Amino acid sequence: MVSPSQKPSVCNNMAAPGWHVGHYIQRNSRFLLNNFEQLWSHRSFGWTAALRQQVAEANKESTETIVIPRKKTWSKEAVLEALASTVSRDPTAYPYQFQDDPYLSPRTSAEFKLYSLSQESGMSAAKYFVNSNPKFFTKDFAEPHIPCLMPETVSLRLEEVSEEALKERISLRKVTAAVDMYDQLLQAGTAVSMETTHELLDLICLYCDRDPVQEGGPQTEDAEGSGEEVKRRKGRVRRASDFLKFTWRENNNAERIFNLLPERDTRCYSALIRGMVKHGAYAKAFSMYTDMLNNRQTADVDIFNALISAAPDVRDKYNERWDVIAELLNQMRQQKVQPNLLTFNSVLKALRRCGSLARTQALHTLNEMKAVGIAPSLASFDHVLAVFFKAATSGHGNTDILQEVMSELAETSFTCQDPDDVLFFSSAMRICLDCKDLELGYKVHSLTEVGENWRLLGDSYQQSIYYGRFFNLLCMMEHIDVVLKWYRRLIPSLYYPNPQGLRDLLQSLDTDSRLDLLPTIWKDIRSLGHDNKSDLVGELLTLMARDRHSPEIQEAFAACALDIKRVFDGDRGRPSLEWSTSSLSHITSLLLRANKTQQAWEMLQLFKSKNRVPAEGLIEDFLLVCLNNGSPQRAVELVQLSAAFCLNATPRLAKRTLAEFDLTEEQRSVLSELESAGEPSD
To answer: Is the confidence at residue 663, as pLDDT, over 90?
Structure first.
């Protein structure tokens, strides 16, 4: 046998630079051959000769130079990415952005909204504080370095009148300060380079000649608007995009500076035209484009993209809108301007507002994209779907175009190339839902799971819309076992269902006769914060009280009914629901079927205190329970309660009680009076 000291050290060989399997065999070929002969000397299968030949070839090659493989350089995030690829999503966990504090993790849709807004507000406030006080945040311990988490320079350091000071104000997005510095330079007779002028015009046109509102900072009245605008925005959270929705003002600083320029190139025209389109001055943008052509300037692709998107706003008729788009495309060809993805997406988006002729032109546009070698993005297909599909004319035939799109996109991983890319999945799922095409819905959802396509579902609001439509489709078309599987997979890690989503789930349980799961669903309704929705609670009670079930199920239904009663009574300090006759009747029936007579009697007393009249059938069911339990006194009280409600069935109930119960003389006297009082007089 081989002693341990004779064994080669595999670990040492692996640690050597350039180690690989062939190198290991070459260094230890004699050791392997000797041990192989020792172990297999008593048998002969022809393997020894073959191994000898391989070792001889290895020894022959060992005299040659060993090529060490080139070292691969890994990024600093490679280890984290490798570890992340080994972990799948936990369907029982909350979304990752809410896992900083498990105690505060949202458990309801209302908490989800509050947490999201609070988190966004907190980040904005922290960013404002960091940027306003950079001297307190000078050390960076992050590895790898994360530039976006470091303080930004927001204070002006250059006070002298110079082009460098102007560039500083432009980089800090100080619109007013940049315009003032530009005017001071002109007054001092200092020429400003064309490159800096371009950047200034871009800044002014982007923010419509107003200073952008810094996140988390104090709001000014001018930025927020005044009068009706303030009233409209009051009471809701304002986002950065709200402050970009300004109207282009006549003769603003952008136009003034543009008119002062001795020479105006394409970049100057591009800044103004795009700014005018962005802020609603569509006719003025086309007028500026005409002025540019008269000055013998050639437009760039950004100008054409902006004008194409504005074409539907400068014409009323569908054919005239397309004529404008076609003319712009012809001018692009004449001016030899190469289109890009956003050009075709602008055409497709404009076609959504061009009526019936849009279908033919949309297909031509897609063919043109492929001809010039530009791959459509998700936004391209979203615009095509909007052109071909109308919710008002839903039908199975309308999914043909989506079927073709999904066949083309299958197993493809996307990156965001257009802001409208995030609208594709929710639009596609809406088509599947309207047409009740479950198979196509699965195809759409499987595409979201390819690579990182899930990032293109949009923000939390858009994701909620997508998953709500997908879950609604499952509830309508899929078997309940599959629905519940998806239910546990999506909630709450990806989707907080709204009352309509839970109502769809209840209908699915009813369709597949799985009402025994209603108590479990009620617990989820409470945990999701929808126990204050009277319509949803009422539908749950209706399903539980509609039919009779086994004693075990009735017992579970009764416990669920008592829990619902606590909600109506204002449990946990929350506002109580308004009692209705149906809710009182359903809870009473469920308690009776579980033989909880005392609790059912309390519910009957609640009818009286709430000025509600119970149904005659409910009183008769209660009388039958009293008969089975041998409770004559409760039966007499029940007839008296029926008389108090002035029910027409009171004489019949009194007569039945007299005939079927063992009563005392006093009880018989009371029932006889009730029986005679209800009989019609001659």
So the answer is: no
Neighbours of 273 (CB within 10 A): 28
User: Taking the C-alpha atoms of 117, 118, 123 and 128 in order, what is their torsion angle to the nearest 10 degrees?
Assistant: 100
Give backbone dihedrals phi and psi of 548, rounded to 5 degrees, phi first.
Answer: -95, 145
- Number of domains making up the chain: 2
- Determine the pLDDT at residue 682: 44
Q: How far is residue 669's CA from residue 671's CA, in Å, rounded to a whole number? A: 6
Tokens standing for 212? 């952008």
8: region left, alpha or beta (phi > 0 left; psi from -120 to 50 alpha): beta
What is the C-alpha to C-alpha distance for residues 522 and 530, in angstroms, rounded to an integer?
9
Rounded to the nearest 5 degrees, what angle is found at the Cα of 305, between the Cα atoms of 304 and 311? 85
**Domain termination residue (choose one: 62, 79, 105):** 62
H-type alpha helices, 239-353: 253-260, 266-278, 282-294, 301-310, 318-334, 341-351
Last residue within a domain, chosen from 41, 62, 83: 62
How many Cβ atoms are within 10 Å of 384's Cβ, its own excluded?
25
> Could you tell me if 156 and 172 are in contact, meaning their C-beta atoms sit under 8 angstroms apart?
yes
Residue 103 in domain: no
DSSP class of 528:
T
Do the domain assignments include residue 50?
Answer: yes
Neighbours of 381 (CB within 10 A): 23
- pTM, 2 dp: 0.78
Q: Is the residue at 9 inside a domain?
A: yes
**Smallest Cα–Cα separation from 597: which of 571, 627, 569?**
627
- The DSSP H or E segment spanning 181 is helix 175-187
Amino acid letter, 51: L
Rounded Cα distance, 2 and 505, in Å = 69
Residue 393 within a domain: no
Cis upstream peptide for 218 (omega within 30°): no
Q: Which amino acid is at 436?
A: K
451: left (phi over 0), alpha (psi -120 to 50) or beta: left
Report the alpha-carbon angle 312-314-320, nearest 5: 65
Cβ(120)–Cβ(210) below 8 Å: no
Amino acid at 483: V
Query: DSSP secondary structure string, 126-177?
Result: HHHHHHH-GGG------SS--GGGSPP--S----SSSHHHHHHHHHTT-HHH
Residues 19-76 have pLDDT tens digits of 343 444 444 444 444 443 443 344 333 434 444 555 556 555 555 677 777 777 778 7
Distance CA 152, CA 131 (A): 5
Q: Which amino acid is at 520?
A: T
Average of per-residue pLDDT values in the chain = 81
Calculate ∠ Cα 152-153-156, nearest 5°.
Answer: 160
Q: What are phi and psi of 198, to 5 degrees?
A: -60, -45
Q: Which residues contact 372 (CB under 8 A, 6 or more apart)?
A: 338, 339
CA distances from 254 to 165, 178, 179, 225, 614 (A): 19, 12, 9, 21, 74
* Other CB atoms within 10 A of residue 527 CB: 13
- pLDDT class for 398, splitting at 50, 70, 90? low
Q: How far apart are CA 259 and CA 254, in angstroms?
A: 9
398-434: b (≥16 Cβ within 10 Å) or e: bbebbeebbeebeeeebeebbebbbbbbbbbbbbbbb
Query: What residues have CB less than 8 Å from 231, skipping those under 6 apart?
Result: none
Calculate the dihedral angle through the C-alpha atoms of 555, 561, 562, 564, rounding to the nearest 10 degrees: 150
pLDDT mean over 78-95: 80
Distance from first CA to last CA of the chain, Å, rounded? Answer: 121
* Structural domain span for residue 627: 613-678
